[in-house]
Amino acid sequence: MLHDLQKDFAAIALSNNKAALLGRVQAARGTPERRLGVYHTNTIVSLTDVLKAAFPVVARIVGDRFFVAMAKVFIEAHPPTQPTLFRYGHDLPKFLGAFPPAKSMPYLADVARLEWARIEAYFAEDRAPMDPTQLAEIAPEMLSQVSFSLHPALRLIDSAFPIFEIWAVNQADHDVIPGIDFGHAECGLVMRRDQTVVQRLLNEAAYQWLRSITTGLALGEATALVAVGSTNFDLQDTLHLLLAEGAFTDAHIVSIKN
């Protein structure tokens, strides 16, 4: 049956499992094993190129030889499940976190998370950002009950390592990579603005405030929660930054239960 034939061929292309089709191939030149193996090789090469395009910084950090070998292991363990290749690779950050050869680079998985967040932001649904004057139209006594609708492209990223700095110094236009202090954490956001993906570092207080907002807390609740653990949170500066980045699409009043 055609379906069975396609399934057996996919097994060859993705995992190099030739058993089901080996007896059905006639080779005028070379062996049936080699002729079938060509499809597996071509598939691995093509999907490796997809991963390199999605994770260029990871590829630059580890080098081509490491990346190609790693990609082969990943592809065979995590073959595509959707026909849209731009969605392929979302499992790579988790895979890198458990990949023994990458153990000496504990930051690598988080760098991959940042790169995948950029992919998601780029392909996210497009919506108009909120007009900042919308907040000015809300009565001051009601501001604490404001809840924000988030832009679909917004992604939050945090790491125990300076992944934003690592990403920045590993761009193609940097011939020399400066020394990096790996002993500090970084957190921030990824957004798409005017069809361009941007990322911004946030201080810990602003990051925790925004994370609280993403869970559905109103402005007053999120601010009070952050104030418990931080004395340097500036709500006005944080709002100004997030509105400028287009992180919100709407603001509305919610009733807060006592």
Task: Itemize the secondary structure elements and their pairings.
Blueprint: H1 2-15, H2 32-54, H3 56-62, H4 64-77, H5 92-97, H6 108-123, H7 133-136, E1 146-150, E2 155-159, H8 163-169, E3 186-193, E4 196-201, H9 204-214, H10 219-229, H11 235-245, E5 248-253
Antiparallel strand pairs: 1-5, 2-3, 3-4
Helix pairs in contact: 1-2, 2-4, 3-4, 3-6, 6-8, 9-10
How many strand units? Answer: 5
Oligomer: single chain
Residue windows where pLDDT falls under 50 for at least 5 positions? none
Sheet bearing the most strands, described? 3 strands, antiparallel
The global form is: elongated
Strand sequence of the main sheet, in spatial order? 2-3-4
Strand content: 5-15%
Order of helices and strands: HHHHHHHEEHEEHHHE
First-residue to last-residue Cα separation? 64 Å
Essential attributes:
mainly alpha, 12% strand, single chain, elongated, 2 domains
Structure, briefly:
The protein is mainly alpha-helical. It has helices at 2-15, 32-54, 56-62, 64-77, 92-97, 108-123, 133-136, 163-169, 204-214, 219-229, 235-245; strands at 146-150, 155-159, 186-193, 196-201, 248-253. It has two domains: 1-86, no CATH class; 107-258.
Characterise this structure.
The protein is mainly alpha-helical and 258 residues long. The protein folds into two domains: 1-86, no CATH class; 107-258. Helices cover 48% and strands 12% of the residues. The protein has eleven helices and five strands. It has helices spanning 2-15, 32-54, 56-62, 64-77, 92-97, 108-123, 133-136, 163-169, 204-214, 219-229, 235-245, and strands spanning 146-150, 155-159, 186-193, 196-201, 248-253. Strands 2-3-4 form a three-stranded antiparallel beta sheet, with helices on both faces. A hairpin with a 2-residue loop joins strand 3 (186-193) and strand 4. The protein is elongated. The protein starts with a helix and ends in a 5-residue tail after the last strand. The relative contact order is 0.11. The model has no long low-confidence stretch (mean pLDDT 89).
